[in-house]
Input
Amino acid sequence: MQPLISIIIPVYNVEKYLEKCLNTVKNQTFKDFEALIINDGTPDNSMKIAEKFVNEDERFIIFNKPNGGLSDARNFGLERAKGEFVVFIDSDDYVDKDYLKVMYEGCINNNADMAYCRFKHYYPRTGIKVISLNPQKGVYDRDKALDMLIRDNLMHSYAWNKMYRKSLFIDNDIRYPKMYFEDVATSIRLLCNANRIVVSDKYLYFYVRHPGSIMSTMNAKKINDLILSLLINRNYIQYSGDYDKFEKSIKAVAKKMQLVNIYSIFRQHILCFNFEGCLTNLRTNNKMYKYVTSKTYKAIKELPELPFTIIQPENKKKKK
Output
C-alpha cells in the first residue's frame, strides 16, 4: 500500500541532532507515512544513526546520493515520494508528535492543497524556545495567503513548516532551485497553484538555531540570491497573469530587501577591511531593485537570472 504522507529528510553532517529528529518522526500519532532519509553524501556518522531506524521500522528508507546540497536532496526525495502529501523536515530540527496528524487533517477537512503550522526557534546551547510571529488560525484562500507570503508578513516561505499536496510539485513542474533562499523562490510558486492553505494555531515544528545561520553570514552570493528569489517569484506571478494583483506586495518586499542588502553590503566591506567597490555594490543593489520592480520587465517561462550582481570584496584582513 502507498503511504498517505511522504516525509523528506535531507541529511548532511547532522550526527549531533539526527537521532532526536528521527525519534520525533517515529513517534508521530499519525502512522501512515514513509520517511525518506536522503543521504546527501554526508561524511560523518549520520548514516549509522539512520540505519538503526531503518532496521527497526520499515517506514524509514535511506537513499544515497552524491553531495548536491539541500535543494538537490529535496528534489531527489520528491522524485521518489509515494505519498499523496509531502512534508520536509530539516534533519537538525524536530517536530511535535501531532505534526503530521494536525497538518493532514487540516488539508483533508478543508479540501486544502497546503497546510501551515506555527513554529518555535530552539537554541540548543541554552534550551530556550522562542515563539515566531505567525498568521492567525484559519483557512486562507490563495490570494490572501499569497499576499502575506510575498510580503513575508506573518506567513513565511520556509519549506519545513508546511504540508503540500505532492501534485503541486509534479503537475506544475516545480522544484527547488540550487541557490540560497531556495524556499523563498519555491513556496510562493507552489501557493500560486494551490486552492487554499489551512493554518494551524499549534506550535508543531521546532527550528534549531545554530551559530552561522544564513542571515548572520551574509555574503555577496547570498545577497544576490535573496534578490534573485524575489525575481523568480515576480517572474512566475507575471507569467501566470497575476502581476497586477500582487504588484504592491512585490514592490513592498523588494524595498525591504533593498534596505537589508544595504546593511549587508556595508557589513561585508567592514568585515573585509576593504571599501574598494563598496559604492559600486550599493549602486548595483539599487539597479537590482529597479530591475525586479520594473514595469517593462518581460516574464519568461524558465527561471530568470539577474543581469547585475554584487561583487564580494577581497578580505584584506587575512593578508595582515
